Amino acid sequence: MIKKINDFLAGWPMTIVGGLFLLASFVLPRVGMPWGEQLAWVCVVICGIPLLYLAIWRIIHNRGIAKISSALLISMAMVAAILIGDLFAAGEVAFIMEIGALLEDMTTARARKGLKKLIALTPETGRVIRDGKEIVIPAAQIRRGDTLRILPGETIPVDGVITVGETSVDQSIMTGESLPVDKAVGEAVFSGTINRFGSIDMEATEVGADSSLSKLIRMVQDADKKQAPTQRIADKWASWLVPVALLIAIAAWLTTGDVVRGVTVLVVFCPCALVLATPTAIMAAIGQATKHGVIVKSGEALEKMGKVKTVAFDKTGTLTYGKLAISDLIPLADMDEAELLRLAASAERRSEHPLGRAIVEKANGDGVELYEVSEFKMEAGKGVKAVIDGQTYCLGSEPYLTEHGITLSDHGRAALDELRQAGKASVLVGCDGAVLGIVALSDTLRPEAKDMVAELKALGTRAVLLTGDNEKAAAYFTSRIGIDEVHAGLLPEHKVKQLGALKVRGPVAMIGDGVNDAPALKTADVGVAMGAMGSDIAVEAADVALMTDDVSNIPYLKWLSNATVNTIKLAITLSMCINFVAVTLSVLGVLTPTTGALVHNAGSCFVVLLAALLYDRKYRKKQCKGKRGRP
Q1: Mean pLDDT per 10-residue section of the chain, whose length is 631 residues
Q2: pTM
Q3: Are the C-beta atoms of residues 597 and 287 closer than 8 Å to each other?
Q4: Is the dihedral of CA 6, 8, 12, 17 positive or negative?
Q5: Number of H helices, E strands in the chain
Q6: Phi and psi angles of residue 543, each rounded to the nearest 5 degrees, phi first
Q7: Could you list the active site residues?
Q8: CATH 2.60.120.620 correct for 322-444
Q9: CA 260 remoteness from chain centre
Q10: Positive or negative CA dihedral for 510, 515, 519, 522?
C-alpha cells in the first residue's frame, strides 16, 4: 500500500501539481497574500514523501556506504528547512530532486522483448524414426542417439550428425554466414538451423538444454543479468557529501550561534545540479542521436560508449550488405562474359540454391534473354545439370563436375585458387568434359565501411572483426577497409569468449545484426545493432540500434558519447564550484534558506542549459592524420 502511494506521488502528473503549488507559494506572498506561503506544503508532501521513502529504503536495504545517498542529504535539508519554517526551501529541494529522478527514469527504460522472440525460435517438434516408422514427437522428448529425419524447409530441432543424405543448411542463426553451408554424411548440424534442400537423416548428439540454440538463449539471459544499473553520480558522491555537509552546517551553527545559517548550508549543499546534469545531458544526446537515425535505449549505453576503446564488428550484414552478388565472370573457353552469364543463368533458372538465384537475378537485372532448358536436375549440396539446345551443362563445385567427367584446366585452377583466396564462392560451368567458365559470387562490402574505420582510428578507437565466416573471406574484406585484427570462424560462444579477451584491454562495443550476435551484443560493454535489416532479437539485445543501417554512424555515435561524457563532467565541475561559493556565502550569513534555494535553483538551471546545448552540437568527420583517404 505504501509503495503504491509512493509510486502515485512520484509520477509526472503529481510532480507537476507539486511544482505549480510551489510556484504559487513563492509568488503569492510577494503580491500581498502572505497565506500563499502555506501552499508549499502541497509540494513538500507530494515530492517529499517519495524522497523520504527512497532515503529510508536505502538505509534499510543497501549495504555499507551505499546506505548514504543523495536522497538522504536532500531529505535532511528538507526536514531542517521545515523545522525553521522555510517551506519554500523545503519544497524546492524536494521538487528538483524528483524532477531529476523522473528524467533519469525516462532515459534508462529498456525493452526486454528480444529474449521471448529468441525462445520462440526453438523447434517444438521433431520427426523421429523408430521401428522403421516416422513419428512426430515434442522436441523435449528427443534423446541422444535418436535418429531424426529432416525434410527440406524444416528447422533442425537438436544438434546432431548427418547419417544419410546431403543438403545445404542455413546456419545464419548461429554463425551469421550469408551462404547456406553444404553438408554431407558425418558432418555436424545444429538446432535452430534450417535445412534448405535435401532430405537427411541425422543422429541426435546434444538435446534439450545442451543444444546449441538453448545455449544461445542462456548466454543472452546470463549476459542480461550481468548488466547492473548505473548508479547516479550524485549517489556516488553522497558518501562524502553527507558528512561534509553536516560538519559544515553544525560548525556554522555553533560558530555563529545562528541555526538558520546551518540550515542554509544544508539547502545549498543539496546535489540537485548533480542529479539533473547526467539525465539532462543524456536526454539531449539521445534526442540528437534520434535525428541521425540512431536509437539509444539507455543513458548508461551513452556513458559507456564514451569510454569504449575497441569496436568489434560482425561482418555479414554489418560491414557487408549480407546479400550475394556476382563479383567475377571468368570465361575459360571461346565465349565472352555475357555469354557465360547467359548460359549459367539459363541453367540455374529453376534452382532454389542462393548461388543460383543470385546468378539469375544478375541476368534478369541486365536484361539477358535466357535459353530454354529442356531438362533440369538438382543435386542438393553439389550442383545442377541442365540440357540446353541438346547440350548437357553441369554447374556446381569442382568435385561435382569431376564426377561427371569434366576437368579443370591449369589456367582455370589458378583462377579458382585466386577466387578462394579472396573468400569468394565459385560456380563452375562445364560441358563436354571441359570447364567453360567460372562465376564467382561474394557478399557486397558497404562503400562507407572504409571511411568509417578511418574515422574511428582518428577518434582513438581500434576496430576488430569477429565473424563466423572463414579466414580467407574475412581477411579479404578486412584488407579492403583497413581492419588489422581479425578473428574468424567463430560460433556465438566463441564471440563471447573473444569479447572477454578484448575487454581486458578496456571497454568494448560490439556491432552486429543477426540472431547469432545477440549474446555478443549483450556481453559487450555496449551492443549496437543494425536495426533496419537486423533481426528483432539482435535489436532488442543491443543498447543502440542503427535504424538506417548506415555504419558511418558508428564514429558519430562514438563522438556523441565522448561529448556527452565530457559535458557531464563539465556540468558536475561547475555545479560543485557553484555549491562551494553558495556554502561560503551561507556560512557568512549572506544567503538565507530561501535565497539559498533560489541560488541553488539557478545553478541547477545553468547546468541544465549547458547539458541541453548538446542537442544542437554538430559532428565534423575526422580523418587519420597523414593518411587522408586511407584507413
Answers
A1: 83 91 92 92 93 88 72 83 89 81 56 53 86 89 93 90 91 66 88 86 90 68 46 59 84 91 84 69 80 77 89 88 87 92 94 88 93 89 89 92 92 90 87 94 88 93 88 83 90 88 93 78 88 57 76 92 87 83 91 80 74 80 46 33
A2: 0.64
A3: no
A4: negative
A5: 23, 22
A6: -90, -25
A7: 314
A8: no
A9: 51
A10: positive
